[in-house]
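User: My collaborator sent over this chain with a note saying "see what the structure looks like." That's all I know about it. Can you take a look?
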Amino acid sequence: MTSQIKTVLLLGLLTSLMLLMGRALGGQTGLLIAIVFALVMNVGSYWFSDRIVLKMYHAQEVSPHDAPALHHMVEELSAKAGIPKPRIYVIPEEAPNAFATGRNPKHGVVAVTEGIMRLLSPAELRGVIAHEIGHIKNRDILVQSIAGVIGGVIVSVANMLQWGAIFGLGGGRDEEESGGGGGLASSLLMAFLAPIAAMLVQMAISRSREYLADDTGAQLAGDPKALARALEKLGMWSGRIPMHSGNQATAHMFIITPFSGSTFASLFSTHPPLEERIARLEAMPSNA
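Assistant: Without extra context I'll predict from the sequence alone. Here is the result:
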């Protein structure tokens, strides 16, 4: 199953969960309020995401004069991808990493740390840049924002159900059909479990988009093994050199997560296992 199909199915699952929560709430008014609230919050975040995250990491835009090789890579790969050349930013961090942002290809941004430019060879850095341009080409910021809106609705409705139960207002249609207690109990159970399920689905969508960006980046660069070597180096060094700015809320944006965790925590990771990404890339034929 391709990453695109997986994304569609996962978004459909999130939507179904949202509608189920709306039914448990017992009417359309509460669901509509939650949708409007989530839209305002997430659309605002989507529209200003590039400014927010670039400021958070103290990123500085660089000109072709300041970084000619980097600009050449971005210009070449974005032309291959058929998108406008993204703006280029450098993050003053030794931790080797990179991310892409921007609400659409016309407002695309590629940001790299100073550390990644020192660590990787030109071919490896080109693979990383191709991966980030893949995110812009595939409109992953938009996909994640849609998932965020639906997930936000689910969390808001769950909160309404919990407060309704506390003050004896909850239960909705299910409570009427079951005669009271059973409906209230099922609504409460759903209120606790649905946000967890929504978070897991959102994490799965994020991992699916990372695989897709790997595939797109490998095709654009023509050398999947160079991207595989880059990921191997980044995985090795990111644990040794911590990221000093930013926070975990932006971890999904980076090519590899800036934060480490236990095996159990990997279930909640926004990134697929690094070993699997490397193995997939090494198995791809080179078309350089």
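A starting point for your reply to your collaborator: The longest helix spans residues 181-221.
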